[in-house]
């Protein structure tokens, strides 16, 4: 009997539309339409419409309003809970699953292997509806991800909403069963949620359900305030039901207009002075007040355009973000930014209209169709995720694991110049993938130590004691050092620490307390008395700071000189290198290169950059190093950037111009192809040092 009632219930009209018609609140659907509009503007132009993200906050308020309006007066028993969950998940899941399946299908064709690998991981989280929890990880920032190719990033809000639905029946039960005490419990949870939101970090509050709970409850309170006022003769109603919002009818249009105008300001461009949390709190409270005031036809948000946007808002929210990214991905090299964003907006709106009328409305009217459709989409998604691993020939290893026991670029033919263009492209795509995953490698028979970045090479037949120190740049360069000195060394060792720059003492202001490992390395060097000490790091921190006075007053330079003076007591030659251009705030060179190759697009602006960009970025570093060389007679500097440029040092390259193999395997580090490119000039510098010893 209960199942029959559920099926009949699910054959009713569209959930949101039917509710709004029953309650005669056309403005609510209009507010929903306005919310999706500002979210769309924000995702299209995040810098210009920087407050559009608040549309999602309004969604949460509206969701809380509707949940309370429909279900608060129903008995919170087993049948209610079953009906609630069936209806909610069938309302959300069909279009949600369809979107994830579409993203996977399009991504399998359009994306390069590396990005498709990450897409599959993201969709796996989205299928489980836990995308919002990704932002809880350290060093994860939603606002930065908006500019990346995170195709299901926007599903975080649906994850929050679903997680809220898990507790809604319990809240209704507590309030119905325990009356005043239940309301006190729910109110306390709401207050705790708001305080957590106010005082916790943005990373924690952005997608954490507890930090969003208060927004749903603002909507719930608005719904209770729009209920019919209780009869004063009924004392029980006066206790159990909230008071009707005490506003005179004559004042309501004016108040509603003022609130609506305040909400509309979220769509204004270039309001950058507002703080994100202030915007979110304001949007939440203003929308809650608008919902609490009974509607009339004069409301701004009763406009048919806003109402229709509200009708298609769920589908539009789901597809607009992937559509923007796919358009950017494909058209970025072909069209201007405004042109491909305009296409994304048109495709999103037209696609939403099509899907809403063809699929969404029909599925909402059929329990059986919705179930079959959802299960089919989920099943196909799982097939995509369970497909044979796309890196079956080269299993995935992250950048902190050597690619092979021996460095795989040695004695390997990367490409044959006689290959046809198509084979060169296919080879470049495959080899660049390998270099992306296998970010570094160690020389043969290099025994690792406790530090994952460090190792000792098997004793050689030469006479030189070689030591290399630094960070991940040193790790990348070490195989080349080994290749050049393999017939000259007696002992060879590398000691590297992630992010460590041996000459930048200001990075560790309380040295050695803040970097005991660095201090141990310094003591170790004194014990080893190496012939050649290689210092290779990226000079990313204080060396790049502006030089404001004479060098004898420059603390960065003086501390570096003091460190070199210490090293000079124990070694015969000091080799300094690692200064290269950084693309950290720009596009990933390897990924951008592979995208263009995969889509058969022009490599203009991708394969090269002017040498002056390097000089400008590293001007202070190079100036300090030049001065240091005048004060350190044992020091030699090797320009690691020059071999990647033309002979006149006018144009530098991100990839080999004949083979299309990338010179960078991420935004900073040189690939093995680039390291191999350094060997001829590096050999000249090192052999000269050896001859001078």
UniProtKB/TrEMBL annotation:
<feature type="transmembrane region" description="Helical">
    <location>
        <begin position="371"/>
        <end position="390"/>
    </location>
</feature>
<keyword id="KW-0472">Membrane</keyword>
<feature type="domain" description="Acyltransferase 3">
    <location>
        <begin position="26"/>
        <end position="354"/>
    </location>
</feature>
<feature type="transmembrane region" description="Helical">
    <location>
        <begin position="314"/>
        <end position="334"/>
    </location>
</feature>
<dbReference type="Pfam" id="PF19040">
    <property type="entry name" value="SGNH"/>
</dbReference>
<dbReference type="GO" id="GO:0016747">
    <property type="term" value="F:acyltransferase activity, transferring groups other than amino-acyl groups"/>
</dbReference>
<dbReference type="Pfam" id="PF01757">
    <property type="entry name" value="Acyl_transf_3"/>
</dbReference>
<keyword id="KW-0812">Transmembrane</keyword>
<keyword id="KW-1133">Transmembrane helix</keyword>
<feature type="transmembrane region" description="Helical">
    <location>
        <begin position="92"/>
        <end position="112"/>
    </location>
</feature>
<feature type="transmembrane region" description="Helical">
    <location>
        <begin position="254"/>
        <end position="275"/>
    </location>
</feature>
<feature type="transmembrane region" description="Helical">
    <location>
        <begin position="52"/>
        <end position="71"/>
    </location>
</feature>
<feature type="transmembrane region" description="Helical">
    <location>
        <begin position="30"/>
        <end position="46"/>
    </location>
</feature>
<feature type="transmembrane region" description="Helical">
    <location>
        <begin position="340"/>
        <end position="359"/>
    </location>
</feature>
<dbReference type="InterPro" id="IPR002656">
    <property type="entry name" value="Acyl_transf_3_dom"/>
</dbReference>
<dbReference type="InterPro" id="IPR050879">
    <property type="entry name" value="Acyltransferase_3"/>
</dbReference>
<feature type="transmembrane region" description="Helical">
    <location>
        <begin position="6"/>
        <end position="23"/>
    </location>
</feature>
<dbReference type="GO" id="GO:0000271">
    <property type="term" value="P:polysaccharide biosynthetic process"/>
</dbReference>
<protein>
    <recommendedName>
        <fullName>Acyltransferase 3 domain-containing protein</fullName>
    </recommendedName>
</protein>
<dbReference type="InterPro" id="IPR043968">
    <property type="entry name" value="SGNH"/>
</dbReference>
<feature type="domain" description="SGNH">
    <location>
        <begin position="454"/>
        <end position="681"/>
    </location>
</feature>
<dbReference type="GO" id="GO:0016020">
    <property type="term" value="C:membrane"/>
</dbReference>
<feature type="transmembrane region" description="Helical">
    <location>
        <begin position="180"/>
        <end position="200"/>
    </location>
</feature>
<feature type="transmembrane region" description="Helical">
    <location>
        <begin position="148"/>
        <end position="174"/>
    </location>
</feature>
């Amino acid at each position: 009997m209960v199942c029959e009632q559920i099926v009949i219930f699910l054959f009713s009209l569209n959930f949101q539309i039917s509710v709004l018609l029953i309650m005669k609140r056309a403005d609510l659907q209009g507010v929903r339409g306005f919310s999706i509009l500002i979210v769309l503007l924000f995702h299209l132009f995040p810098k210009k419409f920087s407050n559009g993200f608040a549309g999602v906050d309004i969604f949460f308020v509206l969701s809380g309003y509707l949940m309370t309006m429909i279900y608060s007066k129903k008995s919170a028993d087993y049948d209610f809970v079953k009906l609630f969950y069936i209806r909610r998940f069938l309302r959300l899941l069909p279009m949600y699953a369809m979107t994830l399946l579409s993203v996977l299908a399009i991504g399998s064709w359009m994306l390069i292997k590396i990005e498709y690998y990450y897409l599959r991981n993201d969709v796996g989280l989205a299928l489980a509806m836990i995308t919002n929890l990704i932002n809880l990880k350290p060093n994860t920032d939603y606002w930065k991800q908006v500019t990346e190719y995170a195709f299901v990033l926007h599903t975080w809000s649906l994850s929050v909403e679903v997680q809220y639905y898990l507790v809604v029946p319990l809240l209704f039960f507590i309030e119905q069963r325990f009356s005043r005490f239940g309301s006190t419990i729910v109110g306390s949870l709401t207050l705790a949620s708001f305080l957590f939101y106010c005082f916790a970090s943005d990373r924690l509050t952005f997608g954490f359900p507890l930090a969003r709970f208060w927004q749903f409850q603002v909507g719930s309170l608005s719904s209770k305030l729009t209920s019919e006022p209780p009869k004063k003769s009924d004392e029980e109603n006066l206790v159990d039901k909230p008071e009707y919002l005490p506003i005179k009818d004559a004042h309501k249009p004016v108040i509603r207009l003022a609130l609506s105008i305040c909400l509309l300001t979220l769509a204004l461009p270039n309001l950058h002075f507002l703080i994100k949390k202030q915007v979110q709190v304001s949007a939440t409270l203003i929308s809650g007040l608008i919902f609490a005031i009974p509607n009339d036809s004069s409301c701004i948000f009763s406009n048919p355009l806003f109402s229709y946007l509200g009708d298609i808002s769920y589908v539009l929210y789901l597809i607009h973000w992937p559509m923007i990214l796919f358009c950017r991905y494909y058209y970025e090299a072909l069209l201007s930014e405004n042109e491909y964003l305009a296409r994304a907006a048109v495709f999103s709106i037209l696609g939403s209209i099509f899907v809403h009328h063809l699929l969404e409305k029909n599925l909402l009217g059929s329990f059986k169709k919705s179930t079959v459709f959802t299960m089919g989409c989920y099943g196909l998604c799982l097939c995509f995720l369970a497909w044979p691993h796309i890196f079956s020939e080269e299993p995935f290893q992250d950048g902190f694991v050597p690619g092979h026991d021996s460095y795989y670029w040695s004695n390997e033919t990367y490409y044959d110049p006689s290959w046809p263009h198509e084979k060169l492209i296919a080879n470049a795509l495959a080899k660049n993938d390998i270099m992306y995953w296998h970010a570094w490698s160690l020389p043969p028979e290099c025994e690792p130590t406790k530090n994952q970045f460090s190792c000792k090479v098997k004793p050689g037949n030469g006479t030189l004691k070689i030591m290399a120190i630094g960070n991940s740049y040193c790790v990348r360069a070490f195989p080349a050092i080994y290749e050049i000195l393999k017939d000259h060394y007696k002992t060879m060792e590398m000691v590297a620490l992630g992010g460590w720059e041996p000459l930048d003492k200001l990075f560790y202001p309380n040295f050695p307390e803040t970097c005991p490992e660095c201090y141990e390395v310094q003591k170790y060097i004194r014990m080893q008395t190496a012939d050649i000490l290689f210092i290779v790091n990226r000079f990313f921190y204080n060396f790049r700071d502006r030089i404001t006075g004479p060098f004898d007053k420059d603390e960065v330079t003086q501390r570096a000189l003091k460190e070199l003076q210490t090293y000079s007591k124990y070694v015969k030659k000091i080799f300094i290198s690692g200064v290269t251009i950084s693309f950290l705030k720009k596009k990933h060179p390897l990924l951008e290169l592979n995208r263009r190759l995969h889509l058969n697009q022009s490599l203009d602006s991708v394969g090269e950059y002017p040498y002056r960009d390097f000089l400008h970025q590293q001007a202070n570093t190079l100036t300090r190093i030049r001065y240091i060389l005048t004060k350190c007679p044992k020091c030699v500097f090797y320009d690691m950037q020059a071999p990647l440029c033309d002979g006149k040092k006018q144009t530098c390259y991100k990839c080999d111009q004949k083979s299309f193999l990338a010179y960078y395997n991420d935004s900073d580090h040189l690939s093995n192809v680039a390291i191999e490119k350094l060997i001829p000039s590096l050999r000249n510098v090192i052999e000269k040092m050896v001859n001078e010893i």
